[in-house]
Predict the structure.
Amino acid sequence: MAKIVVGLDGSVPSRQALKWAVAEAAAHGAPLEVVAVHQVAIDSWGMAPVRTAADEPERAKVQAAAQQIVDGVVAEAGPNVPPSVQVIEVSRDADQLIVGSHGAAGFGRSLVGTVTSRVVHHAVCPVTIIPVRKKN
């Protein structure tokens, strides 16, 4: 396996997906790329993101927060880690994509969130969905 990609938005499901992805990448000896995602404004047609120079500080904060989460999960994994872990913005050449079942705006009892549903329908590689684990 050449590469595994996981989406991270800071939500509990995405953190669980990250933990699973670290273990999966380590088991296959594959590098892991973490896609840091956050909500952005969409144009009035609902087709394209609207970005401005004022968005850059927020993007940098998201990137730094994602790196901090990744560093923590990798540290918890101990010796069982992938050969490399990178936090990136996008990836189109993955062999596997791993996402949590819901993002930061997860709704009630739906099985998957809207973003996860879109990823499943549009991905060009296998997608693994990590369900929310309820704490006892």
Summary: Residues 104-109 have pLDDT under 50 and may be disordered. The first strand starts at residue 4 and ends at 8. The helical segments are 12-28, 56-77, 114-122.
